[in-house]
Design a protein that fits this description.
Helix content is about 30%, strand content about 25%. It is of the alpha+beta class and about 290 residues long. The chain is globular and about 55 Å long. The structure holds 3-[O-phosphonopyridoxyl]--amino-benzoic acid.
Length: about 290
């Protein structure tokens, strides 16, 4: 039997979970989404994800058809209905059904759906060995275009970057912004460690304010690392002692080379491994319980 999907207020079988070809989420990528994980029956950082979800919707002037409390319940119900403990939850709201023009005013009712399933971005072995990544030619959107802070359904920019990484035969691509500063990977934030300083690009460099990014900055501070959000160039990564990426789907994955420059000794870094362990512990201890 397939998954049970929450679609516009009802739990339906996967095969029945269908939306119109006139939905502007499909026709124009007009909508926003979230990716959330549950660990051992608890939804990790749920409020943080939902706050970002409502902020993304607000930024594109789209009203989420459920309030915070009801959406939270709908997510819990969806995970429970699928009897999942470790899961990846996709929450999507689109502008809804309209005509073949762009105008969102023609879309009267937003479409809201929730998928609770699983995800694996990279093979397990890559977490042990570390990722080789390359800088891609596709630049991150300008913050005055589709602001990367909005988790919109418009991921073509990132997908083009991912295609470049695939073509280069590596698992991930590093995207620069218009000024040539580092922004982020195709769906993950990036960090470097050098001489006791944990660095990541600021939101203003055109990055999504990752929930995992936030958690990792807090973990770093608790380990007496100096945590800095500042503009970075590729040189800062080439010469770092350690490097890793973060994301809900990817979790924390060590990076061992960029553009064929070996980072540190070419193995996942010791501090990175400590951060990964602490992150894992948090995922097992925190979160909104699905089954109690
Ligand atoms: N940057 C971008 C562009 C993202 O889309 C992150 C960073 C990491 O943010 P979080 O809050 O997850 O730590 C994201 C996250 C998917 C999927 O298929 C979603 C993301 C990344 C990869 C896959 O749902 N979004």
């Amino acid at each position: 039997m397939g998954l049970l999907i929450y679609l516009n207020g009802k739990l339906v079988q996967e095969e029945e979970a269908k939306i119109s070809i006139f939905d502007h989420g499909l026709l124009y990528g007009d909508g926003v989404f979230e990716g959330i994980r549950s660990y051992n029956g608890r939804i990790f950082k749920m409020d943080e994800h939902l706050i970002r979800f409502y902020n993304s919707a607000k930024a594109i002037m789209l009203e989420v058809p459920l309030n915070f409390y009801d959406l939270k319940n709908a997510i819990i119900q969806t995970v429970r209905a699928n009897k999942l403990r470790d899961s990846y939850i996709r929450v999507v709201v689109t502008r809804g059904v309209g005509d073949l023009g762009l105008d969102p005013n023609k879309c009267k009712v937003p479409t809201l759906f929730i998928i609770a399933s699983s995800i694996q971005l990279y093979q397990d072995s890559l977490y042990e060995k570390g990722l080789d990544i390359v800088t891609v030619g596709t630049r991150r959107n300008l913050t005055e275009s589709v602001n990367p802070a909005i988790k919109s359904l418009n991921y073509l920019n990132n997908i083009m970057a991912k295609i470049e990484a695939n073509n280069a035969g590596v698992a991930e691509g590093l995207m620069l912004n218009e000024q040539g500063y580092i922004s982020e990977c195709t769906g993950e934030n990036i960090f470097a460690i050098n001489k006791g300083v944990l660095r990541t690009p600021p939101i203003s460099a055109g990055v999504l304010g990752g929930i995992t990014r936030d958690t990792v900055m807090k973990i770093g501070a608790s380990m007496d690392l100096v945590v800095k959000e500042e503009n970075m160039t590729r040189y800062d990564i080439y010469t770092a002692e350690e490097c890793f990426l973060t994301g809900t789907a990817a979790e924390i994955a060590p990076i061992v080379s960029l553009d064929k420059r070996m980072i540190g000794n070419g193995k996942p870094g010791k501090i990175t491994e400590k951060i990964r362990k602490k992150f894992w512990t948090l995922t097992q201890e925190e979160g909104v319980s699905v089954y109690e």
